[in-house]
């Protein structure tokens, strides 16, 4: 891709020796999922491998600067740990005061508009990362009218950006079909040294009060409505013993049914990895995932994955690493897919799943791919400090 493929090539200004990249988003809370993990891992990776100076600009309980590279802007709490900025002129001033050379907006809401305005005022490139499928969300809620409204909204917003990252082909195609230009697929990744089979929690079944031969299914993540937890509960009840479902991401430990255990949200990646690796299979009932990072993390831990043939999960999962249930199926379809995986051998499928992650979805591959676009936007040959061996990111 050359400069003519970007939205606002004229914004590129003098080349800074150590450019400052600022990631700004409202999708950052103590209990948020994939976006927060992406940003925190990205911060560490950029410090280790690049010449880029990196800051995160996110809502917080108070104004706070640069602890661990995270700058917080005081914003009221609105829902489930998320905060919404309200002092928008002050927010724009604080964002501009960081002296960014490139800004990436991680949400298409208030922060996205503020990023676009600050980038235009500073005459610097702006990137948007489309982590959410707003068009699909409104279409499922209010039909064609909702899709049309979301399309018009996103075209207006993203038309102000130089480049749009989409985490999967399904999101990229949705944006392109809406008439949005300058879209590239930018997959996420996983740290396969943290998420690996060898770090399994060997005492997990005993701690859960399960027999050693229990078939332990797992789901981890925000327990939001779109994750369709009732379908997972109905699925495991349909399967019965020796199946048991472990759900990681609740507010407190509980046993809502004899076949389901809920554990609280866990922020420590090493703990999540140990819990995932101790299970037999990850099952995901979401149909509108824009990437599905927890599926990759489970695959890196040597688990096969069962999901619906819908959303971005269908880009990560096939019969060689798990099973896809029909998109219009329900609990019975998920149960059949789980039984099929156990009939074919979850260990072999899990080994193939880990190999797929190692080959295509390392963070090295993901960020090296992304850095090439940043370098083009900043008119630099390369922003890498070293030259690690990296496979190209899929997509």
How would you characterize this protein structure?
This protein starts with 19 loop residues before the first strand and ends in an 18-residue tail after the last helix. It is built from 14 helices and 17 strands. The longest helix is centred in the N-terminal third of the chain and has 16 residues, at 34-49. It is α/β, with parallel strands linked by helices and 395 residues long.
Q: How would you sum up the global shape?
A: globular
Number of domains: 2
Find the CATH superfamily of the largest domain.
Answer: Glycogen Phosphorylase B
CATH topology call of the largest domain: Rossmann fold
Set down the secondary structure blueprint.
Layout: E1 20-24, H1 34-49, E2 53-60, E3 64-67, E4 70-74, E5 77-79, E6 82-83, H2 88-97, E7 102-105, H3 110-122, E8 126-129, H4 134-142, H5 144-158, E9 163-166, H6 169-177, E10 183-185, H7 204-208, E11 215-220, H8 229-239, E12 243-250, E13 254-257, E14 260-264, H9 269-277, E15 281-284, H10 293-300, E16 305-308, H11 313-316, E17 322-325, H12 331-344, H13 346-360, H14 363-377
Helix pairs in contact: 2-3, 4-5, 8-12, 10-13
Short description:
Helices cover 39% and strands 19% of the residues.
Keywords, please?
eight-stranded mixed β-sheet, 395 residues, alpha/beta, disordered C terminus, 2 domains, 17 strands, seven-stranded mixed β-sheet, Rossmann fold
